[in-house]
Structure formats: C-alpha cells, structure tokens
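User: quick one
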Amino acid sequence: MATDTQIPVADRRVPVIAPGHTFSTITAKITNIVLKRPVSLGWIFGFLIVFGMMNMLMMALGYLFIKGTGIWGINIPIGWGFAIVNFVWWIGIGHAGTLISAILALLRQTWRNSINRFAEAMTLFAVACAGIFPLVHTGRPWLAYWLFPYPNTMRYWPNFRSPLVWDVFAVSTYLTISLVFWFIGLIPDLATLRDRTENPVLQKVFGLLAMGWRGSARHWHRYESAYLLLAGLATPLVLSVHTVVSFDFAVAIVPGWHTTIFPPYFVAGAIYSGFAMVLCLAIPIRSIYGLKDFITERHLENAAKVMLATGLIVAYGYFMEAFMGWYSGSQFDSFLLWNRLHGPYKLWYFALLACNIFIPQVLWLRKFRVSTGWLWLISFVVLVGMWLERFIIVIVSLTRDFVNSSFGMYYPTKWDWMTFAGTIGMFLTFMWLFVRVLPMISIFELRTLLPEAHVHEDAAEEVKP
Amino acid sequence: MSYDVSKFESPTGSSSYGLMAEFDSAQELMDAAHKTHEAGYKKIDAYSPFPIEGLAETIGFEKNRVSLVVLIGGLIGALTAYSLQYWVAVITYPTNVGGRPYHSWPSFIIITFELTILFGGLSAVIGMLGLNGLPMPYHPVFNVAEFAKATDNKFFLVVFSSDPNYDAARTRSFLSSLSPRMVAEVPS
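Assistant: Done. Structure below.
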C-alpha cells in the first residue's frame, strides 16, 4: 500500500544523525557523558571561573540588600537602568528553548530532537537569571509577593489593568510551563539512566526522578498526547511572554516605547538572541563532548537560517521605528530618531546596527553557516547586539523625553556591571552542572530518528486465519 | 525474630504476575503484540524504549483521556483568572484608573490567557502521570533482570496472569512460538 517514496535531497545536505548508529550506541554515547566520563581538569577550571562569577552576583546582591538601589546608576529620569535591560535580554534568550521544543515539534521538524533538551535547560536558566532583575528592581524584594493577588490584612489587591502585573503572570507561567515541559521530556531518559547506572545511590536518585517509568505502550500513548498538548499550549505562551514584556513599554507614553510594532518586534528579537545563545553553547559542547554525530552541520545551518530570518524581522522593526519617527510628524518621535543618531549614545546605536543588522548578513553565504568558528563569532555578536538593543530602548528613550528640564544621562556603576556579569556566571554555572548530571540530548527522541524505529502494521495481517 | 513469608504473597495464591517475552526490534514487538491480541489475550502490555506508533492501539488501548483533562484544566484556569479579576476590580476593590470602567475586560484578557495555559499545562502533566499510575516505585516487571534493557534497545511483551485465557504452560508455548529472544516468568 504505502510506496516508499524517497524525497530527493540535495547531495550536500547533511543528515540529522550520523549514519551507523543503533539504539544502543545512542544510549551509550549520551549516558556515558553522565555516568562514565571522568571529570576533566578543564571542566573544573571552567567551573571555578563561572562559579566565581556567580559569587560575584551574590556579593553584588548582598550589598544591594544592605544599601538599596542607590548603589546602581539609576536616577531620575532614568529609573529603569540595567535591571530592566538585563531582564529583557535574558528573557529573550529564554525563548529559544520553548520555541525549539514546542513550535518545531508541532511543525514536525525532527532536527530539533537533538538540540531541544539543552535548549530547554538553557531557557530555564535564562529565565531564572531574568527573574532576579525585576525582583531586585522593586527595591524591596522581600515584599515582591505583593505583586500576587492574595487575601491580606491591608485588604489591598493588585491593579489588573497594569502591564507590570501581566508581566508577573506571564513570566511565572512561562517558567512553570518550561520547567514541567523539560521535566516531562526527561522522565524516559531518567529511566534509562536508572537502568544503566551501577551506583546504588544514583539508582535511587534517578529511580525517584523517573517515577517508575517502564515504557509501557499505554504510558507512551498518554505521554505523547500530553507532550503534544503541552507543545500546543506552550506555542502561544512563548509568543505571549515577550509580547507582554513589550507591553511594559508600549503601554507607556514615552517616545520610542509607545508603538504598536513592539510585540512582534520583541518576539522576533527574542528568538534571534535565543538561537544565538543556542549556537554559542552548542558549538563548543558538541566538540568537547564528541556529539558531532547528533548535532550535525545541518543543525547549525538550520539555526543560522532561523537567526538570519528573525534578524531581518528585527531589522524591519528598526526601519519602521525610524520611518515612523519621520512619517508621524510628531516632534518627539522625530527627536528620538535624531537623538539616537546624533545624541550622546550614538556610538551604542551604531554598534547596535552593526551587530544586529549588518554583520549577520554574512549568514546568506553557506560558508559562514557551516564554519563553526565564524558561526560562533556571529552568534556572539548577535547576543551583544541584542543587549545593546535593550539598552537603546530603555536608556535612550528615558534620558531625553518630552521636557528639556528633565533630560539626563545614565552611567552604570560597577555594581550594575557586577550584577550583569554575575548572572552570566550563574547561567553558565547551571549549564556547567547540567551537562554533567543530566542527559543533554533527548535519548528517546533520538532513537525515534533511526529507521528501525518505524514499524508497519500490515505485516501482522497474514496471521489471521 | 522471623517473618512469615507467606503473608506477603498475593491473596489468590498465585505468585506469578505474568509471562514476559523479549524481542530485538520494534517491528518484531509490533507483530508479536498483534498476534497475541488476535489470539485472545486481552490483558497484555508492551514495553519499548521509545514511543511506537500504533502499538497501544494494537494491544487494545482506546481510552486516552489526557486531552479531556487538559480541556477541563484550561477552562478552570480561564474561569479562575477572569472571575478573580472581575471580583477584585469590580466588587471588592474597585479603583478608578484613568477613568476606565471597573469592568475593563480587554485588560483582563492577558492574565486569563496566561492562567488558561498554566492550568492546562499543569493538568497535562498531572493528568498524564495520574492516568499512567505514576509515580510507582515498585512494579513486578522490574523483577526480570533483562527488563533493564527496556529503556535501552530491547522490546518486551507481557501477558498478565489475570487474563482469563492465561495458563502458565500454554501461554509460555504460545509466546515461544513468536520467536522471542527469551520468555521469562514475572514474579509478582
């Protein structure tokens, strides 16, 4: 009945999984990183550096709790300093994981199977970093629970018409759903680790986490529908999170914020920086841990194409901002454009255009998409560019708005930089631990990519009497 | 101090949970599951290291209620969020914000949407685990040493002793006729 039609593919297209693998080689290769591979000196050395950076974050936050937000560079009129810049940047990076897991799963892009696990982990860690900033930005983080609606003796309730309250719900929902999505994906692989480890303590730990998973066909059936439904729910969620973050700006009347293009432009930017971070992590990890069979050139090339496409949407966003500055005829909007090009932060704006628009255009050439060195460099440039974009949006708009008497300048202090660098340290510390304690590639999803995983039901028909 | 071992045996007196057959490939498991189901065994289960399309239906699984659970969870989330916002903004703590009506419904949509997703997503997880009977720390199939490969590269079929057609000797010879790698008894 089913004719085995092979879709012709261009010769140079690399497969998503290198030839010659079987179920057991996939299992062994990925579980051995967790169970057998000795801890190398390089890992320890790197861990000490990133852990040191994380401790710098703890120091910066500790001093902040003693002194208050006065240690930062924020002032009036620039009340939203690095805290908001970094929050938006990190939450944007946190978009790639769920995009890869959910949207690409719904689109049946099987190449996602080998990068979704660590992209999801990356999402969790990035959202954890992002969550710190609005919390400490409140100034009195021990009262942050006031943002949630709960019955209290003050008989006080949050204002649900405020985008800042929407943000609380959007970000906490995103964190929760990303966490359960990641954990659900891990259950069958935790069962694999439970059955493969010889260490009795690890058997107990993985056994508890795997919750008695035994791979029953009925369980798989429910598992797959739950996974598909979660993907269906997470898809609008991932698009909504940065939309809601952009409402924090778009609902305000400040020039450069009050625009309708913000939601799509923020979402595209989020995916742009998210894929850049995926590439920045995947390129070194695949060569250090010998995973080039599973994360092939095809994955890198596809991720580069997604980056190129979302980068062009971001470029369109910049273009429309500039166009509306001229076309609206509003003196404040046209001043904003002039201020970006000629004001005190013009070098930052030019750097932003170079990093986000001009340099990534080299990705049109295949040579740059498949060269790991170049691709890593371009991804890094995009990450810098996206951080600059958040800086331009938050800082430049606030320094010079409507009235000359309230113009100001923003200078980040060493505590601002320490907090920012510290969250990078925290993010990398979590990644450092993650690659050694959990399978960084989804083992069971990789197994389904092998031709042996596909069965046909007709063969059994002949047994009928 | 001594324990009466017989107390731990199942009340029916049978100490066998069923018979387990091991296969090398997904296709072999699929064919074997089909033949076993055709042969009249209804209380069976198949185990594989990855989801196999159509296997659950082959062993007679029909009722997958996960989507219903998610629908109910999502609706509860939407109702919770909207009624909470309505109650707060209109009834218990009405605040005039820029002259907007107390029941300013467009502002309430976002949180309604987020809680729909949150409740729906959590119901998907809890519903899937609950309907699967997980977490389950002990299960008789783990008593067979070879079963550790069920999460690696081997495929298993179990006929439960609770099946009305189950007979230790006859079922064993039936399973052996499906050319498995081995047939083993699963102690309960």
